[in-house]
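Worked Example 4.2. Consider the chain below.
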Amino acid sequence: MAYALVALFLLALAFGGWGLWKTFAPLPDDARAQLRAQQARLAQLEQRVATLTRSDQISREANRDLQGTLAERDEEIAGLRADVAFYERFVGSTAQRRGLSVHQLQLQAQDGPAWHFTATLTQNLNRGAVNSGRLTLALEGSRDGRLQKLTWAQLRQQPDAPGLAYSFKYFQQLEGDILLPAGLQPIRIIVRLVPARGSAVEQSFTWAEAAARPAAGTP
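Applying the procedure from the previous section yields the following structure tokens:
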């Protein structure tokens, strides 16, 4: 029995020694070469993945820039087409003859009670003739349930405020600022043109349509 235990102990010791040798013994030359090759291949694959990732990022950024540029060009083309259509209505061979009028009124909110306005004046009835005069605005609104009308002097908050001078052959844009009193709900705005010769012209616009965002390409 003692001999059997000794033999079993020696066998276990030999098996453990063989396992340690397999674990820590130096690799043969072909295994070392294979390891180096695998490490090199791994480094190449990692570099390739990094390159492709960067390339994809650059492509995405370039695509976004391209889409933005195309959108800007489309908007520019739409604007130019609108301009051409606008001009043809007044100077084209088939343009309908119209006298002095307000083609469009645009309002844009500023800081506090101030609003900036842009009025587009047109005429092509007397081609080549210069139209001159002055523009004023009036405003109708509601405050505390009562209808109120503000004059040009009140909107400018300047007694005897002169109208804006205009002088053009086919069209002109006039710009200025008006001030709304606190608590007033604007309803309608009236543009009055007083030419140097001829009768005055009045046109009204609802506040909602005048304050709406203008379409792209609107002169």
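The longest helix spans residues 29-91. The chain has four helices and eight strands. Compare this with Example 4.1 before moving on.
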